[in-house]
Amino acid sequence: MFRQMRIDIETVLDNDPAARSKFEVIFTYSGLHAIWAHRVAHMLYKRKWYTLSRMVSQVSRFFTGIEIHPGARIGNRLFIDHGMGVVIGETCEIGDNVVIYQGVTLGGTGKERGKRHPTIGNNVVIGSGSKVLGSFTVGDNVNIGSNAVVLRPVPSNSTVVGNPGRVVKRNGERVGDRLDHTQLPDPVIEMLRDMQRQIDDLKSELRAERALRRSSNNHELIPEGEPTL
User: Which residue has better confidence, 76 or 221?
Assistant: First the structure.
């Protein structure tokens, strides 16, 4: 147990440049506190002490702002940065070396029973405000952009952005849109921009056609043989 706690502290120090010391991490990082509380709640959950496990998770939620269902299975070296508003569902499975930022939801899409929450692979980064909803798998080495809404499986070594989430990079190759290393594109915005360009082109054609018609009408009003000024 103490070895695992030491790994958790080192994970925070490795992922957060603002963390200055182990003492600071132990006493001030709510994401770390939520993970430790979840381990206790999960142990109770596996022993079928469901109500007590939920009580532990709710106390943790009250103090940290992070809600992790006791049934969720979490791997090693999970880092929850800031964490306020993070929700992790009952049948969610999270691999190793995963980073989750504030406002992330790993949830379901309805009242179905059984496996209804996502399975997150290893070395995944989930950006602020992202929602991963449904029973499917997000592969290894995946980056999910901030505020993305992911509703379908994501292959390994991919980058996902937008609402609904779309893969824009796979195995190091760009898919569709051009990527910038500092800013992820939104395919929906790109589509809207393309539609706006088409509308502008149509407006230009209509203006040119109207101008041509006015010119033709003015020419017809001038009698033949009369000089024009």
Answer: 76
Interatomic CA distance for residues 52 and 137, integer angstroms = 30
- Residue 188 in tokens: 């929906």
The model scores a pTM over 0.85: no
- Rounded Cα–Cα distance for residues 171 and 82 (Å): 30
Give per-residue pLDDT as tens, 89-129. 999 999 999 999 999 999 988 777 788 999 999 999 999 99
Element (H or E) spanning 28, and its range? helix 22-28
167 CB neighbour count, 10 Å cutoff: 18
Those residues with Cβ within 8 angstroms of residue 135's Cβ, 6 or more apart along the chain or in another chain: 91, 108, 112, 114, 115, 116, 117, 118
Contact 61, 70 (CB under 8 A): no
Rounded CA-CA distance 23/89 in Å is: 30
Q: Inform me whether the pLDDT recorded for 181 exceeds 50.
A: no
How far are the Cα atoms of 90, 93, 227 from residue 57, in angstroms, in the given order?
11, 17, 93
The closest of 104, 89, 143 to 121, measured between CA atoms, is: 143
Bridge partners of 119? 93, 137
How far apart (Å, rounded) are the C-alpha atoms in residues 80 and 100? Answer: 5
Instruction: For residue 130, give every residue at least 6 positions away whose Cβ sits within 8 Å of its Cβ, in sequence order, or none.
Output: 101, 103, 104, 105, 144, 145, 146, 147, 148, 149, 150
Residues 17-59 have pLDDT tens digits of: 888 899 999 999 999 999 999 999 999 999 999 999 999 999 9
SS3 sequence of 56-81: HHHHHHHHHCCEECCCCEECCCCEEC
